[in-house]
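Predict the 3D structure for this chain.
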Amino acid sequence: GDMVTGGTLNQSGVLVVKATRTGKETTLAQIVALVEEAQTRKAPVQQLADLVAGYFTYGVMAIAFLTFLFWYVAGTRIWPEVWSTMAASPLLLSLKLAIAVLVIACPCALGLATPTAILVGTSLGAKRGLLIKGGDILEQVHRLDTVVFDKTGTLTQGQPTVTDCLLIQPETENDQQSAIGTKTIALSSASQLLQLAAAAESGTSHPLGSAIVTEAQQQQLPMLGAQDFYTEPGLGLSALVENQRVVLGSADWLSKQDVTISDTAQAEVKALADGGKTVVYVAVDGLLAGLIGVNDLPRVEAKETVEHLKDLGLRVMMLTGDRPEVAAAVAKTLSIEPEDVIAGVLPDGKANAIANLQDQGHCVAMVGDGINDSPALAQADVGIALHGGTDVAAETAGIILIRNNLLDVVKSIDLSRATFNKIRQNLFWAFGYNILGIPIAAGGLLPGFGMVLSPAAAGAFMAFSSVSVVTNSLLLTRLRN
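Done. Predicted structure below.
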């Protein structure tokens, strides 16, 4: 049956639910834990604020002392009319100004600038199905210039279906004699080819293998016995089916098994690949027996997502292990430029592909959903995982899309940018307030305008600075969904 998330409301009907995870292991508890952790993780930009705030108190005390010293020793003598019109002694005026400096100076605004924005941003994201794992992720998103998508299961639906099953007959006399010499049973129909392939794929959970097994089941073909399974990640597999060695996978995998691919077969492969179909080669006892074409349709929202990301000024790329022809056909339907397609990448090479982009000076986000994507998600400056994917991918990524919708990639980037902009606005206000407020409190307007900021007024301004930072952060909630 389907997975049921804790906290789900059953609107109608009757459900029989089996608890597979309890307490802290539940999805809901993990989401809460991620949000709580995200709200405590600092953005690197906050290090500057923390550094300034650390020395802020000592600096303000020094400024207050110098303010008192200046006005008591020199200021009232340089401008004698000032203290006489204030109806206060030089000592009282100097103390008043020094106290005003101590009161108006506000490290609180500096301290609140980043965490309040992160708190609001991550909470808003959680409500919208976007789990952002902290302020450091927000700052990295702000720097992004490239977004790389895994193809299978991310840009596509991840539910491939068999569209073609083609027999390849031995072309040369040597192939025919080889088939006789190995006692290979000649395949007379596409159903036999599919039956052998499904038996070999029954020992794997790869999406392409599942598609082949499903097609055989839909055609009600009897499942043949298979044993001696062997899988080479990213290439293919082999199995012993009815005493025949069946090999399925890519052209590279068949080459490693010393299987020759004829020109006729290559022409068929090109035709399938040009149609955006992934080709699975099937060899029986060392001879190419047929080709299976598998199609994985793009997600409905994939093209719109790519276009929105381009509107944000981001370069959109696609990373896949498929043949270049297949990748190019899919990229064309999604408006991804041909030069932005990286094809023929083995699972362990995805992280290297991301690293190469980073070496070129790009700040890269990787969007994926599978175990094979985890190293690339970790390598990328920002990893974005679909919640419908594997737990490993979700654990590695910095942003998790709960609703499993690609358009949420755009929303997560928009929210991250808006949140980081709020952090910068808050820090600008906090620094600007102190830079302007402290000189005024120290008597900067007294000689020219005869104005003195009382300690009470300084306290009001100090409170206002903190409230304004919090209010500005809360304005994030007005961000359009």
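Residues 175-185 have pLDDT under 50 and may be disordered.
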